[in-house]
Write a structure and sequence with these properties.
mainly alpha; three-stranded mixed beta sheet; two-stranded antiparallel sheet; about 40% helix
Length: about 260
């Protein structure tokens, strides 16, 4: 489904919209609550949820040796159901080694480079999506609890500025849709809060798995703005802000979306 024409039609409905209170929703709502009952059932079914194919592939990669060290993720971290439980709710996090905020994808690639002697996996590659989905899935059901102190607080403020910045030919910000018009419709689709507790997600529109940054880029293109590169610091900062907005929502990875 192409939302660009729908968003263009929505411009007339989004008149006179300004910056809004920057506080997160007092009771954030997962994108799950905006789905049809059929899609909710698909996400809930462990045999039918297509995203679990990526989780299964991630489990295989977790045990697969790579790089000059000939070591696997499991060789360092052991049983992921124990060592990775609780990781997803606190990412993105500050990396002392890199001196900047990183998301789970960035931490996986940092481990590959520094610990395994392997090449970083390309963003949006099947292997990186699979490992990210597998690691995140270990925290399914846990509430997001992103701490925003020190460098994380600075990153959050940059992400907040991005979220409220109007951009593109349609001159719309993230907030114009995901705060000001939550529950309204673009064509037949209800507008969600744009929470990120289910990523990576299986999206029917893409017919595949996609990362948070792919979703950011899709939204930028929908308002006819030039998207940033996946993995860029601009999108990392936006991801920090989005995760902070999601604090309290439980991890749903792998979620299913339209």
């Amino acid at each position: 489904m192409n939302f660009v024409p729908a968003i263009a039609l929505a411009v007339g409905l989004v008149a006179a919209i300004g910056l809004v209170d920057a506080a997160p929703h007092s009771e954030p709502r997962s994108g799950y609550s905006f789905l049809t009952p059929e899609l909710q059932q698909l996400q809930d079914d462990d045999f039918a949820n297509p995203g679990l194919l990526w989780v299964d592939q991630g489990a295989t990669l977790w045990e697969t040796a790579a790089g000059t060290s000939n070591r696997s993720c499991a060789d360092c971290h052991g049983d992921a159901s124990v060592s990775m439980r609780g990781v997803a709710p606190r990412y993105p996090a500050y990396s002392e080694e890199l001196g900047r905020m990183v998301n789970i994808e960035g931490q996986i690639n940092q481990c590959r480079s520094a610990r395994q002697g392997a090449e970083p996996l390309p963003y949006e590659s099947e292997d990186l999506l699979s490992l990210t989905a597998f690691v995140s899935n270990q925290s399914a059901g846990l509430p997001i609890s992103l701490a925003v102190v020190g460098p994380a607080a600075e990153s959050l403020e940059r992400g907040r500025a991005f979220f409220y910045q109007r951009r593109g030919q349609l001159n719309l910000s993230c907030a114009n849709c995901h705060e000001d018009n939550v529950g309204n419709h673009l064509r037949a689709e209800p507008i969600s809060e744009g929470q990120t507790n289910g990523f990576p997600i299986y999206r029917n529109l893409w017919q595949t798995m996609g990362s948070t940054h792919r979703m950011f880029a899709w939204c930028n293109e929908a308002v006819r703005a030039e998207p940033y590169a996946a993995g860029s610091q601009d999108y990392i900062d936006l991801e920090v802000f989005e995760r902070w907005r999601s604090n309290g929502l439980t991890i749903e990875t792998p979620a299913v979306r339209r």
